[in-house]
Amino acid sequence: MTQHSRGIITPGRSPVPRSMIGCAVFGAGVIGEVHARNVSRHGSFDLRYVIDPAIDRARTLAQTWGGTAAADIAPALADDTVAAVIIASSTSAHEEHALACAGAGKAFICEKPLAGSLEGARACVASAAASGVVAATGFNRRLDHDYAAVAARTLDGEIGAVEMLHFASRGHKPPAPETAPHSGGMIREKGAHFFDLAAWLTGAEPVEVYAVGACLVDPRFADYGDVDTAALTVRFDSGALATFDFGRRAVFGQDELIEVFGSQGMLVTGRHRRGNVAHFTGGAVTEAEVMPGWHERFADSYVAELDVFAAAMTHGEPVHASLADGLRAQAVAEAAVRSIKQNRPVAIERIW
Ligand SMILES: NC(=O)c1ccc[n+]([C@@H]2O[C@H](COP(=O)([O-])OP(=O)(O)OC[C@H]3O[C@@H](n4cnc5c(N)ncnc54)[C@H](O)[C@@H]3O)[C@@H](O)[C@H]2O)c1
Q: What residues does each domain of the chain span?
């Protein structure tokens, strides 16, 4: 069964529903704050709850952006005025939260990676399908203006058949190594976005991965079985090859680049600058610095995600990335983690 969400969704074109959609945000951490702010400001959503067992974090967000703070998801799930949930909790809580939302008939966006394990991700897909709720994986990069343009032009055939893809993503500052058990680690957490983009851009299915990893930024990542630097190759069933280099520290800001190389040309979208002003002097030309982090670089795409979610809930339009897309990306990530541990290419089982 192939469930490839290939559609290109133009951000900002969604119809605004007649009544506001009651929404809860699960998880009041770094990305929970982004979502709580965007839900609060969005014309289609009404922020009703912010949930986090770290209740002080939930209270801080609720005081700033609205809604009721709670330590447990039960009140939000029992509240009939809540129709939508953004699951922004730690990766280790995603499965429980997605199953609870599906069971309670709440539409949801689940942050990536979909779950803490492949079995958990499969359970999320199955329960959402059984309940029929609108459900999406939080692959916000699909809604970035430039990435969406590369996808649209690739799918239009502008560069012919896709033969090779290259993705670089190096975050500005590393997370604390001790967060790895809750986040899933770099390959699952960061990789999920790019494994999804690669499948989306090729329209093909990943069949094999070979990955090597190292701890060059902070040796403590090894204590948690994680890496902070990695190079990966993925082979697709179309024959296309993709390479990925991931890192946890780029001293100059969010370092991110996509190249799609085809039989008729190449599309490239590179590092985003803070501005477009260059300083020319006798000995040098100085350009603006790159965006400091993913928050700034992809800020618009998180808002676009809500636009698309509202349109899916109210007008039956497609979500930007399905749960099956999340499962595919997770299957690549799990195989890549195994590849690093076993130092060999690993076949990717087709379970989506
Ligand atoms: N789409 C993106 O660009 C993006 C960016 C950052 C993080 N993420 C993903 O979002 C998730 C959260 O990441 P983060 O950086 O915000 O982590 P974080 O550690 O800052 O926040 C996670 C929060 O979830 C809370 N939590 C844990 N169990 C919970 C439960 N049972 N109920 C409610 N809340 C619970 C934690 O207390 C914490 O406050 C991760 O899966 C991560 O991969 C996605």
A: 21-138, 145-297+328-347
* Interacting residues of 51 by C-beta distance below 8 A, sequence separation 6+: 24, 25, 26, 27, 28, 58, 69, 70, 71, 72, 73, 76, 89
- Atom 6 in ligand 1: which residue has the minimum CA distance? 31
For 41-87, the pLDDT digits (tens) are: 999 999 999 999 999 999 999 999 999 999 999 999 999 999 999 99
Q: Is 174 in the pocket of ligand 1 (CB under 6 A)?
A: no
Record: fold of 21-138: Rossmann fold (3.40.50)
CA 93–ligand 1 middle distance (angstroms)? 9
| Domain 145-297+328-347 classification at class level | alpha beta
Nearest alpha carbon, ligand 1 atom 41: 91
Give tens-digit pLDDT for 173-208: 999 999 999 889 999 999 999 999 999 999 999 999
- What does pTM read for this prediction? 0.94
